[in-house]
């Protein structure tokens, strides 16, 4: 408000280096504070002054100038675009080639804040020639430089397969894969994130990540003391497993499913989410892979997530994963039903506090329907007869109509537990599918018992 920004601008061209540097630092701190101040710095025409002589400046000024660019770029795509338009990327690339690690680090930060906004800005960073230099930076000895360079590669890769391919073509995967076992937790977080962002886009990119021999070393990250390392490790595994049965089988062969199950059991909250999704993706691919999840004791921790977790999106993911496990055959559905999952799913569906997304996933359209359509284990189905709403009831009655005609023991139990009585109370539309199911059940018993 006092006009300080305009007073600082000529000082950027002062003959004394320390004044130039201190003025830039003041502008950087102003711009870093909020978006309005950052816009004021840009409107004051600071950027051309800041970068006009940057390649000839000393390392302290280069670091400070990079900080100003980063402070402006972080707020919005529009401000990041203003930096691109003033020609700052070419100057930042020169900083990435500097001998001083601190200058490289400052430039990497600026590139990261520009690239993270959208594909167009990421492409501008790529076109400026930053990617090969960032790949060299992750191979430097300084941990702080490795971290931010990996983070920048992650933010470039996340937007599209083409941008991820550019990072791969620059030779990033091999050095990143080697750093999975680095003891520095913050570096591991970034490395795992970058590999995840590459692997998520396509089968081909996921295979390239796998070929860098990340298994079984990535499984150790699921036991890491750092929660974000755990989460990012599980995310990387999820992004690989989701693509094909072959990649999921590779995970199974390396003992990955059991490791993911242990990880879900040992943590809470959103850290669980990628692990839950991984089990769902693996189970979805085939009957055999779904059975691998069952054998690896994947169902109990998913049930625990349904009960324990407070966030609806985590419960929804657990419901979805259980639906993928149980949807293949009667045997798969039985394993899910025996774990007492069905009443929990039903409770979520009828609970008025559940979000619509969670109801969708736990309702007739998703998990519950998937399991019920295969489940012939009547002891698990019978309690639902007394609680289920009509939309779920038809699937339950449908399964009874399939099993009861062929199982005399089940028929006896159905009468003594009150199941047959409950069926008589159901009001079905004449000629409807539900009425057909009821008729089939009634035909299994003598008329006087039905009466």
Automatic annotation (TrEMBL):
<dbReference type="InterPro" id="IPR011989">
    <property type="entry name" value="ARM-like"/>
</dbReference>
<dbReference type="InterPro" id="IPR016024">
    <property type="entry name" value="ARM-type_fold"/>
</dbReference>
<dbReference type="GO" id="GO:0003351">
    <property type="term" value="P:epithelial cilium movement involved in extracellular fluid movement"/>
</dbReference>
<dbReference type="GO" id="GO:0008017">
    <property type="term" value="F:microtubule binding"/>
</dbReference>
<dbReference type="GO" id="GO:0007288">
    <property type="term" value="P:sperm axoneme assembly"/>
</dbReference>
<dbReference type="GO" id="GO:0046847">
    <property type="term" value="P:filopodium assembly"/>
</dbReference>
<dbReference type="GO" id="GO:0005576">
    <property type="term" value="C:extracellular region"/>
</dbReference>
<protein>
    <submittedName>
        <fullName>SPAG6 protein</fullName>
    </submittedName>
</protein>
<dbReference type="GO" id="GO:1990138">
    <property type="term" value="P:neuron projection extension"/>
</dbReference>
<dbReference type="Pfam" id="PF00514">
    <property type="entry name" value="Arm"/>
</dbReference>
<dbReference type="GO" id="GO:0005930">
    <property type="term" value="C:axoneme"/>
</dbReference>
<dbReference type="InterPro" id="IPR000225">
    <property type="entry name" value="Armadillo"/>
</dbReference>
<dbReference type="GO" id="GO:0001669">
    <property type="term" value="C:acrosomal vesicle"/>
</dbReference>
<dbReference type="GO" id="GO:0097228">
    <property type="term" value="C:sperm principal piece"/>
</dbReference>
<dbReference type="GO" id="GO:0015630">
    <property type="term" value="C:microtubule cytoskeleton"/>
</dbReference>
